[in-house]
Amino acid sequence: MENFRSPYLSKSVHEFWRRWHISLSSWFRDYVYIPLGGNRRGHIRKQLNTLLTFLLSGLWHGADVTFVFWGGIHGFGQIAENTFLRKRSRRFSWLSRLAVLLFVTFAWIFFRANTLQEASYIIRMMFWGISNPVRYLWDGLTGIGIRPGMRTITYLKIGVPLLALFIVDWISRDRDLFSEVSKCPKAVRLGIYYLMGFVLIFYCFQNIGENQFVYFQF
Fold first, then answer.
1. Is residue 61 annotated as a catalytic residue, yes or no?
2. In 3-state terms, what secondary structure has residue 52?
3. H helices of 113-207, where?
4. What's the rounded Cα separation, in Å, for the pair 82 and 92?
5. pLDDT attached to residue 36
6. Which residues of the chain are modeled with pLDDT < 50?
7. Catalytic residue among 21, 43, 61, 74, which?
8. Which of 87, 119, 159, 210 is 20 to 30 A from 152 in CA distance terms?
9. Residue 46's closest CA among 73, 83, 16?
10. What is the distance between the alpha carbons of residues 71 and 25, in angstroms, rounded to a whole number?
């Protein structure tokens, strides 16, 4: 099944979980949230069921307080939306997308940290030196490997894939891109498939073993 559908372009936390790890979130909906009563027993019970479902979702990833905390953040995020943000203006959908992206990214800190103390340290260091915005931004770019004097090809190797991923995500946010490709002439389809294969080989196997996909541990 389609498992991810442009989740980082979601306009709400609820929408994010309809687009992120769809097989897992569907399982928790069908076998935890609905059996608990779902939204059939009033507003307060609905919010409690939502929170319990996300706490269990966190526990599924690992028997550690950081995962439970991560699940709780998403649970309370949905409760806040259900309670205070029932009506959303379409005029500021880009602002909603940005807010959800920041919220989800912040929650990932607890998912990746080994302890709550480590997560607290990461959050404090995120804002270290922010009083000097130019230096703060430059140090951040240096920290992810973007340094002065880099060759143009290096900037292209970083920038082109990011731009391509954003374009693909944006196009496929409300449509099935794979179905669209399947309707193309055979020559076009083969060109797309070979290009994707080349990209996978070129980028994904350069540092194999150094950066393991996070879900391999679950």
1. yes
2. helix
3. 116-126, 133-143, 152-172, 177-182, 186-204
4. 18
5. 93
6. none
7. 61
8. 210
9. 83
10. 12
